[in-house]
Design a protein that fits this description.
By secondary structure, the protein is mostly beta strands. The protein has one helix at about 100-105; strands at about 1-5, 10-15, 15-20, 35, 55-60, 65-75, 90-95. The protein has a 5-stranded mixed beta sheet, with no helix packed on it. The protein has a two-stranded antiparallel sheet with strand order 1-2.
């Protein structure tokens, strides 16, 4: 579970902690757990969704777990990135279990 801050509000997101070297959502089903890549080398590198077969929400966080950018990533995108410097990422599959979290960040009916 990770507590993050977004626009002055706190939200708890159930997420599995994974290493920088994890493959993330690649080759997983859309009903997999949310993944939290923490303690990343501070910087601005891109993600890929090659071999991810479903859309997902990406949250880029700073060192204090403040959301600095969000994006819905589609399947099979070569590069997904933000222009901001970040220190951790949460990947949230778009599924029924995550509907409240997704609506919080994206808004109802905006997917």
């Amino acid at each position: 579970m990770v507590v993050i801050n977004h626009k002055g509000k706190k939200i708890n997101i159930p997420a599995k902690k994974v290493s920088f070297f994890s493959t993330g959502l690649i080759f997983r089903t859309k009903n997999t757990k949310n993944l939290w890549f923490r303690n990343l080398p501070k910087g601005n590198f891109s993600l890929t969704s090659l071999f991810v077969f479903f859309p997902f929400l990406v949250l880029w966080l700073d060192e204090k777990n403040n959301v600095i950018d969000t994006r819905i990533a589609g399947p099979f995108k070569l590069s997904i990135k933000t222009k901001r410097i970040f220190s951790s990422i949460i990947e949230i599959p778009l599924n029924k279990r995550n509907i409240k979290i997704i609506n919080f960040f994206v808004g109802k009916g905006n997917i």
